[in-house]
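User: My collaborator sent over this chain with a note saying "see what the structure looks like." That's all I know about it. Can you take a look?
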Amino acid sequence: MSATETTQPYKVIGKRPVRHDGVDKVTGRAVYGADVQLPGMLYGKVLRSPHAHARIKSIRTDKALALEGVKAVVTAADLPDSEGRFANLGELGEVPLQHLSHNVLASGKVLYQGHALAAVAATSSHLAEEALDLIEVDYEVLPPVLEVLQAMQENAPLLHENQFTQELGQKGSRPSNVASHQTFQRGDVKAGFAAADHILEREYRSATVHQGYIEPHAATAVWNADGHVTLWCTTQGAFSMRTCVHQILGIPVSKLKVIPTEIGGGFGGKIPAYGEPVAALLARKARRPVKVVMDRTEVFLATGPTSGSYVKLKMGVKRDGRIVAAEATLAYEAGAFPGAIVGAGGLCLLAPYNIENYVIEMYDVVVNKPKTAAYRAPGAPNSEHATEALIDEFCDLLKMDPLEFRLKNAAKEGDPQANGVRYPRIGCIETLEAARASEHYRSTLSGPNRGRGVAAGYWMNAGLTSSVVARLNSDGTVTLGEGSTDIGGTRTSVAMQLAESLGIRAEDVIPSVADTESVGYTEVTGGSRVTFATGYAAYEAGQSLKQQLIEQAAKQWKVEPERVRLEDGILRDRNDAEKKISLPELAEMLAHRGVDIGARITVTPQKVGGAFGAHIADVEVDPETGKVTILRYTAVQDAGKAIHPSYVEGQMQGGVVQGIGWALNEEYVYNNEGKLLNASFLDYRMPTSLDLPMIETIIVEVPNPGHPYGVRGAGEVPIVPPLAAIANAAAHATGVRLYEVPMSPPRVVKALQARIK
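Assistant: Without extra context I'll predict from the sequence alone. Here is the result:
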């Protein structure tokens, strides 16, 4: 573990205070979604489809409703008509409301195994489950389509008869499983390939994988007689959840209050609405509070994994290693409804490099699987796996050091991204140089069946809107209400920025995550945006408090505010050393006078700092079993400024571990009928501590000029390089390249056996 240190004389930022919510978490006092208990509460359970693709001919719920203890049953018939309407998700854009609504409760068709059909509220969870067995559903089973290239064929079974491809902004002429087709293009690709000395073309596939958060989804709803609804749920965005639920249920947003509970992991998977509208519908019908909690199988079957994908990539290089042309086709699974984040995959595909000629085709394709959701840098691991693996082949072909090759082509400030926007100050070169200088890369790896691989990665990060509320207490501490749900310790990283701006200790800021009626609008916790954007709001709140305190001290001393400064928690008169007062003393004085010092801040920072990483992986491959063992792993990443280095290191290590799982074992396994065969942690193979070495981290700090403390997001980048880094290492260990992840033991053995033949 190492980190570059800034020369900026920060008092709080860059230190490692104990997280504010740590005691509640380790003692069990923290309230998670399933912990909510209300008087008279009922328990909700959801009936789910056993089929991957079928028409719903009828649903009969009378027997379930007649069971003693059952208080309510709902189906899609209880949802408002959503045809032709769009759900406005704020800065996240618009989507057809019907897609959101029909994913919550199926109408007309079920589109994946586990698709919700109906729900029951009863006096016990066991009674609710018993009632589900009494609901009668008549299906017309249809053939499923499970693979993205198969779904793109003209004769493939259609999931939506009314879906037409949005082809570069134009509506297609016939129904299709391809929801949209986009293109990024630069330069003259044909001329670029003509100038190349070497050209390689490969096809890469990645499986559908789940985020694997520990806590299942949970929601509890109260629907009052006056029409006001209160919803407790485990969500990555209380405001986005409020928006979804109010639009799906057709209730005024002013009558819906969302209280975010603690969240036991999300990684993007807890942004969409699943059981929340269902709990509210049941509560309205039953006139009692209702709690709906998924079990683990439901989480796998019916929540959003990330997109499985197909990437075809062709690249041309000169003898000196310069990349002169690239041509790519990306086809990503959207699951049952459109919305694969293939555009992000296309944007990140070539992001670490300055390539003058390229064309990137991107296809959003529906298949009979759960509607996909974000998963930590969504779309980027799939696409950059292809780029980094193909670059490694060029390095072998040219006998070039893989980091030297990448440095020769590295993106820098002023270079255009795939969407044409030019990079501001970035740290791509610095991360590659830090990887090259690392002890790991300079060490020798010896032994049979061992190999070393490297890969780079990028995520653009997000800004979006964030709000905070800050108020000075009479003892000089500051309460801080944040609109961002806390997944990775952001209560503390945001509080530290407020503390730094006031010159007080991090421990003197008391942060909390607020509900939708207690703080201004705030976008989701995702996109590596919270420490950046909500931290920006906290900084502005600190500046506001600071100015108010200076004005109050100036008033007390009868001097101009320009003469007063606040440093290290003490206000001083620049012209009179005798005039000074500590923040706690001033706070107590103001409280006695009834003076309120506070700030409500909303920001939408535009100058987001994209971030780069470079990873080094050493592996050993057992040629008999195909097992790939990670011997050593180092992640290098530009954090801009590490507010709390321990949290940055934790994000880096956690992202690497998830990338290792994706690279080696994790995947949804379906049979031909579209039934998921491994819907449990027993069969869905995630890495444990026994599968991993200690992940080494190197934090690079190239400050983002768009943030007062130079922050870049840290959470997304580390999941991007592992797929390619491990694939490259395995190729060097065995002499055989695999183009599909996960590189599970059976696939590795099959590839090795094919080489022998």
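A starting point for your reply to your collaborator: Residues 661 and 686 are 6 Å apart (CA to CA).
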